[in-house]
Queue: 2 jobs
Job 1
Amino acid sequence: MSGERTVPLPACRSVDEIAGFCTMLGFTRTYRRERPNPYVVMERDDLHPHFFGLPGFRPEDSYGSCLVVVPDIVELFDAFAARMRAAHGKLPVSGIPRMTRPRRRKNAEGVTGFAVIDPGGNWIRFTAGRAYGGAAQRRGHGRLARRPRAGRASAGGRRPGRTGVPRPGRTGPSRGGRATGVGRPPGRPSRPRGPLLRPARAGQAG
């Protein structure tokens, strides 16, 4: 199945306030309603964030966040920064709303990114597309992908705890350390379960 899409839906204090902010960044409002709850949809190219209004919401207490992977981080930052400077006379880097500057992250193989903190206090984080299509992905997303899953066969071809010896009462060759019962004559009853007969020791009466 393909064609799925995930839509971010953070809260805000006012949908009109958030719509004005997004419009300043170059978004277009495509939907708005007031009842049964305030709701607004913004659009810019392939970005379609949705927001809902929450009475009594405090932007400074927000934990809302969203990750946006883009092919050209510099182009998008320059476009947002130019619009913010035109509206505010400078690039706001403190308070709410604000925007951080691109920086390279050591824990992401040098991939750069920036964040826009909207009037609702939500962190909209933009990162370069290489984060999902670069060296980390070619290696299988790092060391975790190389760690064997629980229950997977070991290098010897057997799972932990398996000896490859058929349990009492079963015949036939084992497969992957498990008796299969192959080779048992049709209609022949299984050997009784319970203690196995042991050979008599030397000198013991027969």
Note: Helices lie at 15-24, 73-88, 130-133, 135-138, 143-146.
Job 2
Amino acid sequence: MVDRDPGRAWSWSVISPIPRGKGGVYLATVVDCFSKMVVGFAMADHMRAGLVTGALRAAIERWHSVECHLSFGSWGAVHL
């Protein structure tokens, strides 16, 4: 997805596992489609909905924007 104006279209990035000692944590990011900049992120020890909604909340709080198109998709399995 490509947009011509910053802050108007955001996309989920892949939820990334980050190994740490016993188990690990997961990182979810929201990316601006125009600038390719990470506009929000969240980390948790699970892959439940709260992880991705936390990343979206962080983006909205940081950029004070809720009027944007949000795109997401599945890129495959995530393994630790």
Note: The beta strands are 9-12, 16-19, 24-32, 38-44, 69-71.
